[in-house]
Structures are given as structure tokens and as C-alpha cells.
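REVIEWER CHECKLIST
Item 1: Sequence provided? yes
Item 2: Single chain? yes
Item 3: Sequence as submitted:
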Amino acid sequence: MTTASVQRHLLLEGIFLKYGFDFRKYTEASVTRRIEVILGKHAIPTEADLLARLLNDEDFFRKIMPLFTVNTSEMFRDPTFFKALRTQVIPVLRTYPNLNIWVAGCSTGEEVYSLQILLHEEGLLERSTIYATDINPLALKKAQDGVYDLEGIRVFTKNYVESGGIKSPSDYYTVHYNRARMIPELRERVVFSEHNMATGEGFVEAHLILCRNVLIYFNRELQERVFKLFYESLASRAFLGLGSKESIRFSACAEGFDELNKDDKIYQKARTPLTFYK
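Item 4: Structure as written out by the authors:
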């Protein structure tokens, strides 16, 4: 093991022991890239120096925490995914009197509001409770506020139309001083909460779980943990949506899911339980 690898191991171990945030099973490339950004931005020579500062300065940890997590998102990202949700998943969800939906790794909330718009248009929002979780409290705060810049709204408008939206995008936000705020009705059905998929447990029996473009930053071991967590958290014949570059195909949990839409990575919990859950 190289000196750099030892320093990185000690840094991630120190963060976990001191603050309880576990980045030890993120992919090496992802962690290295984020650490290099932090070192450069704050003029810190080495990872050992970074660890020393983090152990003695909790305010500094809170400041750099967002740099360790994934905060890139957009409204109705991958429009065909939301079109598939509307045509293939919503008809089944419509049969339930009440819905629990978990958006795991919700970042700054774009996915949450996109989902709520879809549920609203399909008449399901009032019977839904959406649990939006993330490891990053600052990202959660932004998600809770529901305020986005106008460039993000332009992307939203384009994606929304391509996803099969049936209303005007402007029905869902108001503009003040070059910022757009999502309407209050889209914040009433959401419970925002901190949750760490690397260490946390399930907390709800969900009819739909969305975790898109997050697992690509986890190594295989952590991905397996998360797939098992999702499997255990899903109700019978419930649905799981992943990102376009993610797949459950090579997971030990793969047999626990039927592939509903191969291109848009939508899965349905299989009728036959996994062997180790029988």
C-alpha cells in the first residue's frame, strides 16, 4: 500500500470515527477526486494535514462536507425514465389506497419535485408520503427550500415536455429576483431527513424507491449493502428506479427483482422471495 493510500485510508477512517459519516466504501476514483478538490480549494498540503484539521475543527468539517457528496441533479433528468414511470408504474400504484415513496440520495431535491409533479398530474399526490433522504444536511436544506436558479428551470422545462408532462411547467413555480421557488403544494407531502445508506437501516415499507445516479459512486461491497437495504424496504411487488448507468443485474439481489424496463432501469420486486429471505 502506498503512502498516499495509507493517508487516504486514515482520513476516511478518521471521518467515520469522529463524525459517523462513512465514505470508506465509495469508489477510489470518486473519493480521490473529491479529496483533491478539497486540498486545492483550501490550500492544504496533504491528506494527513486535512485529517488533523478535521479532527480539531468541526466547523471546517461542516464546511467541506458538501464536497464529499454528490450534488449534481436536474428536474426530470432522463425524461424517458419519467415517461416510463407514468405509463408502467403509475397504473399499479393507483391501486393502493396510500403510497410510501422513498427518494434515497435526494441531493438538492430536483428528483423529489419532479416525482411530485408526476404524482400530482396522475391524481396520486394527496395519498402519497414521500421520504426524501440524503447524507448532506446542506443539500437537504436546499431541497426543503425548493428554490432554484433560472438555468435549472430552463432545463426543467425542456425535460418536463420530453417526459410527457401534461400541464405548463410554469404552473409549478413562482419567480422572484431571478430565482424560482416551487409552489407550496409540492412541499406538503415530503418528509426530508438525513440518512446514510452506508450505515443506515430501512425505516418504511415503500411502494416505490428511487435512487438514481448515486450508486455509481459506491464500490461493489457498498452497492450490495444498499441493494439489500432496498429489497428489505420494498413492499410486495413494489418498484425500484435506478440511474441510467446503474444496474442490479450482477448483484446477489438480482433474482429478487424482475426487470420491468431495461432501458430506463426500472425493476419490480419479484413474487418469489430471495433464497436467503425464505
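Item 5: Key structural point noted by reviewer: The chain has a mean pLDDT of 92.
Item 6: Recommendation: ____
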